[in-house]
Amino acid sequence: MFKVRDKEPAYAFVPKADAPETNRYGKKIELVDETDPLAGKSLNINGDASVSDNPNRYKQHGFYFNADNCIACHACESACSEKNDLPPHIAYRAVGYVEGGSYPNYTRLNISMACNHCDDPVCLKGCPTRAYTKFAEYGAVLQDPDICFGCGYCTWVCPYNAPQLDTTRGHVMKCNMCVDRLEVGLKPACAAACLGGALDFGVIETTPKNREQLKTSIPGFPTTDITHPNIRFQQTRSLPREMKRTDAMPLRYERDEQGDAEFKTKLRDSGEARQWNLAKLRSREDPLVIFTLITQTVVGVFLALFFAPFIGLTELSLANNPILQPLVLFSLLGLETFALALSTMHLGRPHRFYRAFNNLRYSPVSREVAGVAVFYNMLGGYTLLTSFPGLFAWLPQDLPTVLQQFCGWGAALSGPLALYFMHRIYRIKARPFWNHWQVLTSFYGNMLSLGSVIIIGVFAGALLFNGESFRHLIEIMRWPLLLGLLLDGAGLYFHARDNRRAGGEAAASHFQQLTMYGKTWLLRNILLAAGGVLALALSVTAIEGALAYSLWLFTGLFVITAALISRALFYVLVIPTTMPGAFFWRNRGFQEHARETGLADMPQVGVVPDSH
Question: What is the pTM of this model?
Answer without folding.
Answer: 0.93
